[in-house]
Structures are given as C-alpha cells and as structure tokens.
Design goal:
- This protein is an alpha/beta fold and 364 residues long.
- It is built from 15 helices and 18 strands.
- It has an eight-stranded mixed sheet. The protein has a five-stranded mixed sheet with strand order 2-1-3-8-6. It has a three-stranded antiparallel sheet with strand order 15-17-16.
- It is globular, with a radius of gyration of 20 Å.
- Bound molecules: iron/sulfur cluster.
- The site of iron/sulfur cluster has 9 residues, from strand 7.
Length: 364
Amino acid sequence: MKFELDAVYVEAAMSASALARRVIAALPGAVPVYTVADGRIAARADRGAADSFAAGKRRMVIMRRRTRFLMGCPAASNEFACCGYLVMELASNCPMDCGYCFLQEFVADNPGFQVYANYADAFAELDRLRATAARPLRVGTGELADSLAFDSLTGISRDLVDYFARRDDLTLELKTKTDEIGNLLAIDPRGRTLVSWTLSPERVFRSSERRTAAPAARIAAARRVLEAGYRVGFHLDPIIAYDGAGRDYADLLDQLFSAIAAARIDFFSLGGLRMTPGLRAAARRRFPRDPLLAGEEVLAPDGRYRAFAPLRMRLYAALNERIARERSATKVYLCMESAGMFRRALGEAAPAPAALGARLARGS
Ligand code: SF4
C-alpha cells in the first residue's frame, strides 16, 4: 500500500459489503479495524488533533452514502465557461496533501477518508439519468477525492471501468495525481474510460504536492494506460504564477510531448490558482513555509484570490500556443474562468457547457 492509514472504521451495516471485505483482506495487519454504528461520526474532525484535516486523511471510513451519488460539478456556475461535467461522488478526501487543495476548507468538518460501500447504487442512478439525457455524458469521480488513491485497496476502478465499458453513451473520467494504475491495466475499457492527470512543474510538485507521484511518474503512467486502451487528458491546474512559471510550464509540456504525442491526448484543461479567503488562510496556516502559497494574489469578483487577470491571461495564451504548435486536434479549455477570459486567452468563444461536455464525452 502506498499511503499509510492509522485505522479503518467500518459502519456495521456495511461490514458484509464486498468493499469492506476487499479492503480488510488487503490491509496490512498493523492497521486496526473498528466497527462503528454511524460512519459519519467517525469521519468528523478530531478537534483535539494539532492538524485535524491531516489526521482525517489517515482514517478510512467505509460507510453507506445516504444522499445521491451524482451531481453537477461543484465548480459549475453561470460566472464561468464550464465543461458540462457530471460528478459521481464515491469517496471524500484524499491521502495526498497538496498545499492548495480546496478540500482543506470543503471537508474541514468531516475530513475522514470516506469510501461508500453502496457505490453500486450510483450505477442505478446513472442508468436512470441516461434514460432521459439528450447527449453523451462525461462522468468523473475525482472532485472530492483522487480517483485512484487507495485503488489497490478498494478495487473500485475495476467495477467502474467495467460498467462504463458496456455503455457507449457514457465516458468515465478518472482524475489522479498517483501512478496507481495496476487495476486499470487488467481491464479492457473499450474506449469508454479516460484517465486524466493533473500535471505540475517539478517546482510545484516539490513545494506543494506532498505524497503525490512525481510529474515524470504521472506521465509514464499515462503512457501505460494509453497503451492499454484508455484515453488520456491533462489538467494544468492550478497554474501558479510564480517567477519563471511560464518557462517551467512550457518545459513540462515539452517533457509530456516527448513521451506522448499531442494527437493521442483528448484534452488539456487549464486553470489558475484560486483560493477563497477561508482556503487561503487554512493553506497558509498548515504550510507556512511554502513560498508558492505566499503570493500576492488579488481578490477577484468571484470572491477568490487569483493572480492578476492579465498575468493569468498571458500564461494561458502561452500554454495554448505551445499546445497548438503540436498541430493536433487536442481540445484546450479553461476551468473556472469567465467566457471573456476564455476568448482573450484562447482566441475563440467559449463553447456552451453542454456542447463542450458532449465533445469531451465523445472524444472527437
Ligand atoms: S491530489 Fe487532489 S484531492 Fe488530493 S490533496 Fe492534492 S489536490 Fe487535493
């Protein structure tokens, strides 16, 4: 197992579930397993811990999800040019620890690493939605958790890839900063699963992305899943506007294209560092010595601290030009930016979310 756990808590009603059995069978013997009546209580923040968020990451809670699994992307809003993404929440929190991660604020009150043992209910939900959907759907599991972290324990990816492989109107996006691809290599995705990696320059990785796979390892993993029949995409997000960022991100793209031809990449999503005041305060409190979290961003109209708009625009435009030099049809879009920024940076109008979502789902 690549990530360490202090303990696993299993909700009594889920103790006979396939997920609980798989995790317990694969768990190193030194990790204690406790049965609890209500996983929500085990997932709550331990207010006595020096860093309750970090402590939560080391506590896996296998429990029943009591609410819907599917929802629109939490980043979607009328303010932004969105990509029409649907989120399937199969887990919450993440064993890695990136200094800029929005989960530091979003799940601060319940940071236990929750995994939902009734995840097959999500498939029934999705089948109901498909019956009325007017377009192909792209569904991701990597919003409130990394899609593959702990997959060697949970094995959830096998059921997911298998479900999507049998439905031509759906695309699954697994989003990760790991190289935990062992389960994926054993299944034929029939072109219905796309694995996306968030990529950062070495400097950001070393400064702010604790316990993630190194950028070169992410690229090597992407190449392996591509060869195994998966589609791949990349998120350059968050792009941090430090001195020398333009050169570092361009070098990162050089490194990527020397391993994977642009024509084989489905998309690039670009997004600048953005932090609500609450997230910025939490990040600076937890990582006071990370220079990349100490920038002088400005408070943008959406209430988040961001790099000055002309600086973001220049970075996006330069990266878009670098990708365009590869002369492929790879799609480039912006995440959580306005239609105006999209037009200025990428030189074209932002497509409607439904149209972009359908395009990304089709992969053409
Ligand atoms: S890998 Fe993603 S979810 Fe995990 S800590 Fe980093 S930003 Fe957060």
